[in-house]
Predict the structure.
Amino acid sequence: MEKIIVCIKGVPEPGSVKVDPETHALKRESMELILNPNDRPALEMAVRLKNDYNIELVAISMGPPNVIPLLKHAYALGVDQMILLSDRAFAGSDTLATSYVLAEAIKKLSPFSLVLMGLKSIDGETAQVPPETASLLDIPSLTNVKSLFMKDNKWIAIREIEYGEEEVEVEGPLVCSVSPTAFEYIRPPSLKRLLEVKNKEPIVWQAGDLNLDSQKLGLKGSPTQVVEVIEKKIETKGIILEGETEELVEKLIEVLKEKALIKN
Ligand SMILES: Cc1cc2nc3c(=O)[nH]c(=O)nc-3n(C[C@H](O)[C@H](O)[C@H](O)COP(=O)(O)OP(=O)(O)OC[C@H]3O[C@@H](n4cnc5c(N)ncnc54)[C@H](O)[C@@H]3O)c2cc1C
């Protein structure tokens, strides 16, 4: 049976970022990871397509073992099979090395009709992985897709573009990144599957399980090296107003006027 593959990424919980001072890479293994928020619409689209076309759904994630709860969440949403790509050799991968491992895992899952990904991650923010993976698989790629359906054995995609929308007809298999605003309503996981996943574990593929060239993996295989990560410090200066209630109200009105938050 053909399948839909959805790629999901674990990203640091905002505020919990730890950066390796030597490699400038994120220390993902010691961090609280959440599902990349932009991958949630990709999962929603995948589950809807699974229901519409009765196609098997596989979720894959490359990362340390602490992405397992995210794969289990994907299962609870309707994914049939969970695959974790995890190996020390993958650490420090840039987008090219990440896409290389994902593409080899996807090849191993052939035949497939569609690969869905998020538009971009909220940590790396490059949006390169979907088109790079498509290029390595030598299949078409569409970005920012807001709806997708099948007609006469072809995929019809509506893409969000700067000045409106565009309809594209493509023969599969293909890779699509899903628009973060694709769905107004995203369904929660079902209780039945939440209970079911308690007894399930993802299949783990290490480097040796895939047809990989070790020179193309991790920091060694990454042409992009992050040279410095500068933490943005957000400072908010509070104002303390003192006095009796009436005086305080007047002072507050003055402050709001100064900041042009209310009219004179
Ligand atoms: C501050 C910072 C800056 C960085 N800048 C760069 C840079 O300029 N160039 C560069 O090559 N690398 C960069 N990296 C490294 C980058 O985080 C990794 O390469 C990452 O694995 C993939 O890139 P991305 O997060 O930008 O993915 P994106 O291309 O933004 O992700 C799009 C989608 O691809 C899928 N995806 C991405 N990664 C995975 C995964 N591991 N498993 C499953 N699906 C996945 C998800 O569906 C995701 O929504 C940077 C890292 C940091 C911390």
Observations:
- Residues 15 and 32 are 10 Å apart (CA to CA).
- The chain has six helices and eleven strands.
